[in-house]
Write the structure tokens for this entry.
Amino acid sequence: MFQVDLKSKTRPGFDLLRLPLVGSLLKQRHARTLLQLPLFVISVVMILHGLFGPQLAPRNLATTLTWVHFRGALILVLLLAGNFFCLACPFMLVRNFARKFFRPVRNWPRVLRNKWLSIGLFVAMLFVYEWLDLWASPWWTAWLILAYFAGALVIDSIFKHATFCKYVCPIGQFNFVASTVSPLEVAVRDQDVCTACATKDCIRGEREPAAPLVVIQRGCELALFQPRKVGNIDCTFCLDCVQACPYDNVGILNRTPATELVPDVMRSGIGILSRRKDLAALAIVFAFGALLNAFAMVSPVYALEQWLAQSLGMPIEAPVLAIVFGVFLVVEPVLLIGMATWITRAWSRNRGPVLPLAIRYSYSLVPIGFGIWLAHYSFHFLTGLLTFIPVTQAAVAELGRAMLGQPQWTLVGLPVNVVQIFEVGFIVLGLLGSLLTSYLLAATDREVQRARAFIPWAALSLVIAAAALWVMSQPMEMRGLVLGSG
Amino acid sequence: LVAVAHGCRPHRSSQQNLTFEYEVSPLPARVGDVTITIKMTDGSARPVAGAHVKLEANMSHAGMAPITAEANEIKPGRYQTHMKLTMAGDWQVLVLLTLPGDIELDQQFEIKGVAPA
């Protein structure tokens, strides 16, 4: 039987922190700040250009960098490495600076210590994106970036630890789920070193020897105790644990993508996956939200919305959009996952409770969800790869002098037909990941017969992948919705 | 469809009484060729002849290549061009005008809901 061994005592293989140049840079005490500063400067420029620059999306840095470059670079880095956006997050730079003046004393309310609020915000983010046509609005995009800065600042000025990252930030939740399929994770190099460790600095922080209440280097703010941490969920790659460990025993190590979704063990800061309804809901919203977000950019969605508006006599966009969201993010997942769970139980004669089984196997949808996000975002990224150049040239020219030359509007990116090949490849890759994950889940589940548990969930992943391929084959259509215009 | 935009962007023009009209054909537009006709008159309803008219069409989503075209004057004050819209959706058309006397103006209009071919 295949065994997933995530906690062998020593971890051989690749360690990013042991690379000559990159490793020594990332281990510097102020490495995170160094990475955050450029993104902070770019964010400020985006906000200013979004608010005061031209309100034509392809001519504005806020819309171009956010919806073409940031999203694409984020997902490609998650595919090739790990959660490095959270590492370089500019919102945390401002928050860390503010914490020099405001030391939070409150704990995040116990009732909110889960993912439900952030799932709501993630769905709200997807909804607002469609409702306000954020992709077409530099002004709203600038306000969205400002809202993230304000949210991080206010919440983490009031509440202790990394409350915003762990319980609020929608981008963070996206990254946590997506990074489960990343090839790198922050992990312990040698478990024996941790066993012998008495100070547990990776979680408690490094303390002043003469004054143990004074923290010199903080430990993990997301309550992930390194020796019992499994995978990337809730890990912001902040490297505080790397800095705090007195034995240099934490690295950025390679692993097999998505295998962290399989073991149903107690995880530090997370608990047991099959008991986390909120995490499973996040994984489901991640997978079906990918399909919804891609569907919203192709022609059939407008026909569907027009039909809904006319059938229900509702010429207002928000309720029509809410129905579409309800169908994609609630009705469809409940039906499909319910069906897969029912078939699994009936076919493999499982007599266990329904919900833990549904929760456990829902994580198998993460890779296909990731594949769809990857296909969608890389489409915009690769077809518009060079567009930041003329937009930046034009933005500089608006200041009075064309110091970067006249805008080269002919610079765009890869041809659509080439990028479509990548899109298909990414969806197939996601499907393979989901098939592997559902197989491993079935193979390590003693309560079911392997093949009879694997087949229903493999079929579900196939259905989602087929739907994604159909969406990607549709003509792209980016527009705001005008209901009632026929 | 005939849309009329009165006046010009103040930072680009001293002429406040220009009337700018555009017509898109066919309508509703589909992916492929469209004909855009622009009519300009001054404050006394006289055609504005001899202008240089350049059009740039952008998708509402960033990251797409703009399409540019120059319009020919088909009769005094009326300018016409053909553009090949490459994608369904909303298009923003920027019209860059150079009037006699080197007066530069720009106008913007939308072609909403371009349908797939």
Notes: Confidence is low (pLDDT under 50) at residues 1-14 of chain B.
